[in-house]
Amino acid sequence: MSRSERKSGQFVVPGDRLGVIEEFTSGPGTYVEHGTIYSKTTGRTLMDTLNKKVSVYPLVQAVGVPRVGSVVSGQVLDVKSKVGVLRILNVGKRSLSGFFTGILHISDVSPSYVETMFSVCKTGDIMRAKVISDKNRTFYLSTADKNLGVIYAFCSQCGHVMLLRRQRLECSRCGNIEERKVTSDYGEGAM
Amino acid sequence: MPKRKTEKKKLNIPQKNPEKLIAKDDVRIDGRKLDELRPVKIEVGVLGNADGSAYIEQGKNKILAAVYGPKEVHPRHLALPDRALLRCRYHMAPFSVEERKSPAPSRREVELSKVIREALEPSVFVEYYPRTSIDIFIEVLQADGGTRCAAITVASLALADAGIPMRDLVVACAAGKVDGRLVVDLTDFEDKEGEADVPLALMPNLNAITLLQMDGGLTVDEFEKAVNLAIDGCRELYKFQKEALKSKYVAVKEAVEE
């Protein structure tokens, strides 16, 4: 890139030269190799002449991999007495093309004491949770917040959607009453 | 017999044994100059269901590439603890060649899948996504020589379209020897009737070669010339590659502004 072109808003593709480390520090979306700064995504350049920093504002973002702190949602695959397994289908608001698997331990369900995992969620439920650890690349989840937990529950007797009536979950078809750790926006929130 | 000959000419199929592959005035059987590439058309983001995709037409080659990921690896034991697993499947459609090709992966396709994966791997920041997989699917719809090179060129664009961080785009082009002359971007016919074929993949900004093969025989001197010819071809193709990415995203931006 010649000197006259060095301004913000330039369209760049991966591998485009942005400058050398003597003139800029490398910001997000860029990398340094042999003293030269290159773009690593398709995007537009952002030249911060005050802080001497060059970064690339991406026009495309890779499918999100869950990170610590990200809110994820998905379907409950399996429930044991102390642990639940969640198939993560959404990270933030973006849906994945594949899925990731997360684990929700009973100690991370709620700030208060929980007797059994079966009162928290059941297989097939749609849940929202937060990633609290990705040690060993296993996503450990937590629902210890009022907007985290089950967003859609399904009756264990007939499989129909459970509705929230007078603080209780009631099956829309058979009237069966069940217990879940529900979110504050149960039944209305989208994934 | 003379009747058959006229039929072939009408269909524009090269004669099985033309007297010469290169005419006296340095014109090849398809009318190109020795250092001229076939006409190229590239499009990015053609598939809705893939995370990234691209399509290339290079001469009579028609190739589609799709990228999925990064996503969880299945089967799980294949996952790498420190980086993403890059998987690649090069496949030729049964109707891609003159005689129907069995859709099952052949020995050649398995080898090309590996070769293409290894040509693309140095360009991808695989260490950003440990224990995940990035899957590349390459489908050759119509083949006319140099499909591995065209496949690398599109697959790299599909990766960029998926937003996966990359060191550089990878672009590939072949050079070879036909009728004792060095030429660039061989067609299927030139490849089969010619003396040698040198496919080469390049990261143009880093000036690094990620694939270099040779089929046939060249002297050391000729080989060096062929490599330089292929590099020049790669640099020419890189312009089309960049333009294809630009036209997608700049068009998107203009649509948003309107």
Keywords:
heterodimer, A: 191 residues, mainly beta, OB fold (Dihydrolipoamide Acetyltransferase, E2P), 2 domains, 5-stranded mixed barrel, 4-stranded mixed sheet, 16 strands, 0% helix, elongated, B: 258 residues, alpha+beta, Ribosomal Protein S5, domain 2, 5-stranded mixed sheet, 5-stranded antiparallel sheet, 10 strands, 27% strand, globular, disordered N terminus
Brief write-up:
The complex is a heterodimer of chains A (191) and B (258). Chain A has 191 residues and is mostly beta strands.
Written as H for each helix and E for each strand, in order along the chain, the element string of chain A is EEEEEEEEEEEEEEEE
Shape of chain A: elongated
The CA-CA distance between the termini of chain B, in Å, is 63 Å
Quickly count the domains of chain B: 1
* DSSP, total strands of chain B: 10
Low-confidence stretches of chain A: none
Structural class of chain A: mainly beta
Pair with the most extensive interface? A-B, 26 and 38 residues
Give a verbal description of the structure.
The complex is a heterodimer of chains A (191) and B (258). With 191 residues, chain A is mostly beta strands. Chain A has 2 domains: 56 residues, RNA polymerase II/Efflux pump adaptor protein, barrel-sandwich hybrid domain (OB fold (Dihydrolipoamide Acetyltransferase, E2P), Beta Barrel), CATH 2.40.50; 108 residues, OB fold (Dihydrolipoamide Acetyltransferase, E2P) (Beta Barrel), CATH 2.40.50.140. Chain A contains no helices and 16 strands. Chain B has 5 helices and 10 strands. Chain B has one domain: Ribosomal Protein S5, domain 2, CATH 3.30.230.70. In chain B, helix 2 crosses helix 3. Chain B has a 5-stranded mixed beta sheet with strand order 1-2-3-5-4.
